[in-house]
Write a structure and sequence with these properties.
By secondary structure, the chain is mainly β. 0% of the residues lie in helices and 51% in strands. The radius of gyration is 14 Å and the shape is globular.
Length: 94
């Protein structure tokens, strides 16, 4: 078994930011992988604690995804294909 054939895993870093134009709080996410590569054009979904889809879309060409902060508890899912899915809760957003 080659040690060079290591798998990489998805990483999702999200933080709260203020949108000064609309006075709303936003969530700004940066998607990538453990090998340092970015994750452009991957599926992103935001769900309520009742599994209702609140936001869906894709990361942009620079692997960024931004949305208005939902009310209450929410979860963010990054789906970059089989074996490359990660979920974080609103408690993990900085």
């Amino acid at each position: 078994v080659s040690l060079q054939a290591r798998a990489h895993y998805p990483l999702l870093n999200c933080e709260f930011t203020e949108n000064e134009q609309s006075a709303t709080e936003q969530v700004f996410c940066d998607a990538g992988f453990s090998d340092g590569t970015k994750a452009p054009n991957v599926v992103m979904e935001v769900f309520s604690e009742d599994d209702e889809t609140l936001v869906s879309g894709h990361t942009d060409a620079t692997a960024k995804f931004q949305f208005d902060r939902p009310e209450g508890v929410f979860f963010i899912i990054m789906d970059a294909g089989p074996g490359h899915v990660i979920e974080i809760s609103d408690e993990e957003v900085n």
